[in-house]
Amino acid sequence: MGKLYDRLDDRLRAFIAAQPLFFVATAPSEGGHVNVSPKGYRDTFAVVDDRTVAYLDMHGSGAETIAHLRENGRITVMFCSFERTPKILRLYGTGRIVTPGAPDWPELSALFPSDIPGPRSVIVIALDRIADSCGYGVPYMEFTGDRDHLRDWALRKTPADFADYRREKNTTSIDGLPALPLPTTEAS
């Protein structure tokens, strides 16, 4: 049976650290599309404290999570074990977007490896509900490694390329909500 937790204790932190994949879910306040995004790269999720987590947000073909967070802040992160112990952990909370150049960017980006190319933001989540469930329906799967595609793509980009990409693909959600602001300089 599922259990509620008042904080991220050592056991939950260890479970989170062992998962190579997590899912992020957000939705607009009214109508529109619910978004669920898989996130990989083991070192891109951090437990900041007992009730705060953060993840490194990489450039992608959309910006639904950012648009939804700007509109209403609601976010759920889900981890599920594909190994021996059947467990699903959901972290519910309110998220905020921290982009390069923001006053707290240096402190937050330091939570993640510096060799990950092309981060566009850090998503910081203040947790208001921490719950697990059995995960009996989750299949066994073996992690064989991270895909290098996103990392390789980002290594080929210049700051101007990232600015152009954000301008083209990340300024609004599929429902027309504002996401990332337009870059103001080529170095953005």
From TrEMBL:
Q: Which SUPFAM superfamilies match?
A: FMN-binding split barrel
Residue ranges annotated for the Pyridoxamine 5'-phosphate oxidase N-terminal domain, each copy included = 8-132
Q: What's one Pfam family the UniProt record gives for this protein?
A: PNPOx_N
* Signal peptide range in chain numbering: none
* PANTHER family associated with the record: PYRIDOXAMINE PHOSPHATE OXIDASE FAMILY PROTEIN (AFU_ORTHOLOGUE AFUA_6G11440)
The name this protein carries in UniProt is: Putative pyridoxine 5'-phosphate oxidase superfamily flavin-nucleotide-binding protein
Species name:
Thermomonospora cellulosilytica
